[in-house]
Write a structure and sequence with these properties.
The chain is mostly beta strands. The protein has a single domain, classed as TolB, C-terminal domain (Neuraminidase, 6 Propeller), CATH 2.120.10.30. Helix content is about 10%, strand content about 35%. The protein contains 3 helices and 30 strands. Strand 9 and strand 10 form a beta hairpin. The protein is globular.
Length: about 450
Amino acid sequence: MIRRAFLSMIAVLILMMLVGGTTFLISYHHQKARYDILDEEGPHPRIAKARTGPIPLFKVAKAIGWKAGAGPIPAAGLKVQPFAAGLAHPRWLLVLPNGDVLVAESGGPARPGNQPGIRGWIEKMIQEEAGAATKSPDRITLLRDTNGDGMADQRSVLLSGLHSPLGMALVGSQLYVADTDALLRFPYTPGQTRISARPQKMVDLPAGPINHHWTKNVIAAPDGSRLYVSVGSNSNVGERGQQAEQGRAAIWEIDPRTGRHRIYAYGLRNPVGMDWEPTTHALWTVVNERDGLGSDLVPDFLTSVQFGGFYGWPWYYWGGHADKRPKDPPPDLIEDTVITPDYSVGPHTASLGLAFAKGPSLGPAFAQGAFVGQHGSWNRDPVSGYKVVFVKFAKGQAVGKPVDVLTGFLTRKGEAQGRPVGVAIARDGALLVADDVGNAVWRVSAR
């Protein structure tokens, strides 16, 4: 606690020297939230006025982990238990046809070109406080519940020596893994507990010395004919120029037979979670939007993904709202093509995980809709996210306001006991949640 206060004080003093003490303090207060986050969620959120300052607002929940026997709080009618504990920075999940669960234990790669100098030091301090500076384990672990009690009693390292892996997809006898810099393929038969075969590289993915948003996710089309890979931007709002953004802020479509690929949709600052809506069979994604416009902007969002669709980044947000900060001017007529997202999940919630419900296993209230894992803000006051929510769907569209499914990740002091990331539906219909600060996978089921 003393170290945290000291580092925060040093950061504030440095920033005050850089921009002027009075200016900084006024700017910091000026960026606090003015609206209840409920007003900024749903299909028709309030879009506040942009409030900028010399620097973004920093408000970090210090990562402390769970005390023995502690855990998150489920919604009424649900219960939660650890499916697996003692993991190393678990971020993403894949449920296999036989019920085994794969978990990507991963952290960010070395990024020597990402924010040098004072700002880089401050960002590093923020990552350490938030539990995001962990050395990447670079592996995928297999979890197996052999007796059906809802807890994995067997685990094994399926793959090791990867490079900041995240997304995983199984198509027939081929397991696809999205490393930070490449999409890999391994031969695999469900039931195996170890893969010894060398990987086949399907396609290189944008990375490099900056690699601002390093996570890459992959899912397969329902018939396995195509793969979809999400690639985040290389900056907050295009401040490095569009040359640094080639192939980024987009979802790629890849032919698994040939490796040929194209941009399926773009202008998505940091799409991570993807899944198929069960009624319309449309591809949906959750996207982390930009920073630096105050606590009330910009809403992270859940949206259907249209082929060839442009969603605004970096020049526009939430449809036609212009952002004047990008280094390069927008292409001619691009404003007329901006697609407004379907649903706001709240500003700065860092919504990452996405999984559609597969029936009423958690009760009728959670039978039709999407579960969203919200990793939590680092630059909103008050903080947002740090929970798992459910978004109800009707006729293939997101409706209403998000409903809390799993909370309690923050203490009363605002410290992070855990941070939810990926979510997945187990073979028995339970909800699985990867917690990269609590180093656990939680299992949520009906009472």
